[in-house]
Amino acid sequence: MQNLKQMSSQNKVGLAGGHRACAGCGFPQIIKMIYGQSPAPVVTTCATGCMEIATTIYPFTAWRGNFIHSAFENSAATISGIETAYQALKKQGRLPAEQEMNFVAIGGDGGTYDIGLQALSGAMERRHNILYICYNNEAYMNTGVQRSSATPQGGHTTTSPAGKVIPGKIQFPKDLTAIIAAHDVVYAGQASVGFHIDLMRKADQIFGKVGPKFLNVYTPCRLGWGSDPAQTMEIARLAVETCLWPIYEVVEGRWKLTRKIKEKKPITDFYKTQNRFRHLLKPENETLVKQIQEEVDRRWHDLLQRCGEGA
Amino acid sequence: MEKAIETMSSSGTTGKAEQKKEFQARTGNEAMAEAMRQINPDVCAAYPITPATEIVQIFANFVNDGLVKTEFITVESEHSAMSACIGSASSGARTMTATSSQGLALMYEMLYIAAGYRLPIVLAEVNRALSSPINIHCDHSDTMGGRDSGWIQLFSENAQEAYDNLIQAVRIAEHPDVLLPAWASTDGFIISHGMENIEIYPDEAVRQFIGEYKPAFTLLDNRKPFTLGAADLQDFYFEHRRAAYEGMRAAKKVILEIGREFGNKFGTTYGFFEGVHLEDAEVVMVALGSTAGTARVAIENLRERGIKAGLLKLRVFRPFPAEELVKALAHVPAIAVMDRSDSFNAQAGPLATEIKSALYDAGQHPKLINYIYGLGGRDIHFKELEQILEQTLQAGEPKDLNSRVVYWGVRE
Ligand SMILES: Cc1ncc(C[n+]2csc(CCOP(=O)(O)OP(=O)(O)O)c2C)c(N)n1
């Protein structure tokens, strides 16, 4: 694994400085940590969303390697075509025999959990040699903070507003990582931008594997979450420490926690750092918060069992 | 514009050295699949849909029997098919797909993107009605729905033309002055499942004709990395779109050059359209696809009865050969334009709308009646086409919408 020092001294991959992501946005870090581990050049495709917009406004691009964006729901399908073209041309001897490349598709949670789920499932099932990265900021940020199926229960977004009758999003988020793990991929995992060593270690492991790989990386959005940009990393860690976003990996079918939480913090610690949960801290929502805490506990318990940690 | 006349010639043996021809009984779908085998693309990403399914099935056999070098991506939808094609073509691979109707409709978003990125993807299309109501039979509403997406559009009268068009589509799309995706279409079931005797050219000759693909750019070259598909705002979007429109204009010249080259090599020269008995015609039918074949019989029958009928079979719908077409029709007093789809513009079908706008620019004002026919695969008989031609000849100058646009063969 490339450590941070090595990465900063010889990093000619991923994003160049000068991209337009907000201060405090987590995804530039995600790209840096992951791409820094790739031993070969990376071809990237990215779904429509904040990352694509913030990194590629014509005539500028922040991408140091080859990059294509085509639409919102098809990042996984597009990378399928690229990776297949590579296989075809390689077989025919039309690419240098020694040329190695990694193929990475990226999407936000909207582009991955929702509109792009079908294409993602298809690409994983066909077992392309690709890595799909979901940068999960728990809502459609590019279009102005609408709920996605990754938005946490009770979370305020512009389409699940904290109203007088309905207090934010009604449903618990979908467990996408488990859905992808059920595709029997060579690697499926969850990471958080707040735990960068864990993230880099996962990336390092991923680039050593052939076949479909999926990494779901949690990243705060200061605008969408109403959080302090200086607190991005702390908040990303809190999500893990409250077990709202456990970090683990499923490698060839075997589940493993990559950060054990000895003392689970209450979810309200996490809520306090963001405006999107402000309403949940009011007395009238106490029961709801209690229910959410119970569901978080239940899921954490299940995860521990899956990981053979007993509980 | 002497070329206009030249372009009308077709289906003749033009200077091809006499050699042993190989005729085989083939359906339209088999002919399209055969062309794909000979084109031997690097990548094919496709999804099944009636009536195009067979093309994909036959091609899958070619792949699994090792008859092609193609990598076949069995995608989970047509949207993903076109997305994968876009990824593949951006990576310097010659890329093909096949679809029909709802499949083409599901690709709609990606059709525009393929054209905007100037990717010479080639698609074997089988014309089928669009839902709703659901219907699996032929009309042209699927491809007409994509007529402004930036794809070259070639219609085929029969299986031979479908085969010939698909081969030429590769050359047209990949031409450096064009660089736009292209489809060749057949009429669902009528051609796709109809068996005909067609001439299959030797593999080697087709291989030579299409040549090696030299992509303009590729994502697989890391020596000069680039970004494709950047957000393009008020300051550049317009210029990029304008450049793509220019590619479509340039395609006119390229289509004629390639059609001629095809004739020299294989015996049949292709242009934008083909005229039958146009010289002295007093009434002309303009038609696309298989109906043109039926119309050939109709006009001969009418001629036997002393009625000077003619046919203009349009092969190239995008780019639309406006100038050449109106020139070919300049002396014709009455025209029946046959549309196998309607456009919901509440004034005429897509083909008639194009022709009328071309006539305006040329200052020509013939009597023109638009017939909307055959939707959802409703059959059209040559006797009906005779009636249409006679009716068009005898009609007075149309004065209102109902006399300008006639829904033919529908129970009102
Ligand atoms: C087919 C389609 N539907 C809707 C949109 C509008 N749209 C663009 S980005 C986006 C949301 C992106 O959300 P997400 O994937 O979570 O990424 P983020 O913006 O949060 O980074 C939406 C709804 C689109 N571009 N294409």
In brief:
Chain A is of the alpha/beta class and 311 residues long.
What does this structure look like?
The complex is a heterodimer of chains A (311) and B (412). Chain A is an alpha/beta fold and 311 residues long. Chain A has a single domain (4-306), classed as Rossmann fold (3-Layer(aba) Sandwich). Chain A has 12 helices and 8 strands. In chain A, strands 2-1-3-4-6-5-7-8 form an 8-stranded mixed sheet, with helices on both faces. In chain A, helix 2 packs across helix 8 and helix 4 (75-91) packs parallel to helix 6. The longest helix of chain A is centred in the C-terminal third of the chain and has 21 residues, at 286-306. Chain A is globular and about 65 Å long. Chain A starts with a helix and ends in a 5-residue tail after the last helix. The mean pLDDT of chain A is 96. Chain B has helices spanning 3-8, 28-39, 53-64, 78-89, 101-116, 141-145, 159-174, 203-210, 237-266, 290-304, 322-328, 350-362, 382-394, 401-404, and strands at residues 23-27, 43-45, 71-73, 95-100, 122-127, 152-155, 182-187, 195-199, 227-228, 273-276, 283-288, 309-314, 316-318, 334-339, 367-372, 405-407. The longest helix of chain B is centred in the middle third of the chain and has 30 residues, at 237-266. In chain B, 56% of the residues are buried. Chains A and B meet through strand 2, helix 4 and helix 6 of A and helix 4, helix 5 and strand 9 of B. The structure holds thiamine diphosphate (TPP). The site of thiamine diphosphate has 18 residues of chain A, from helix 3, strand 3 and helix 5.
Radius of gyration computed on alpha carbons of chain A:
19 Å
User: Which CATH class of the largest domain in chain B applies here?
Assistant: Alpha Beta
Query: What CATH architecture of the largest domain in chain B would you give?
Result: 3-Layer(aba) Sandwich
- The span between the termini of chain A is 32 Å
Instruction: List ligands, each type once.
Output: thiamine diphosphate
| Helix/sheet category of chain A | alpha/beta
Residue windows where pLDDT falls under 50 for at least 5 positions of chain A? none
Low-confidence stretches of chain B: 1-17
User: How many domain units of chain A?
Assistant: 1
> Can you give the mean pLDDT of chain B?
95
Count of alpha and pi helical runs of chain B:
14
Strand order of the largest sheet of chain A: 2-1-3-4-6-5-7-8
Query: Which term fits the overall shape of chain B?
Result: globular
Rg over alpha carbons of chain B: 21 Å
Number of domains of chain B: 2
User: How many β strands of chain A by DSSP?
Assistant: 8
Biggest sheet character of chain A: 8 strands, mixed
As a percent range, the share of helical residues of chain B equals 40-55%
Q: What is the CA-CA span between the terminal residues of chain B?
A: 44 Å
Number of strands of chain B: 16
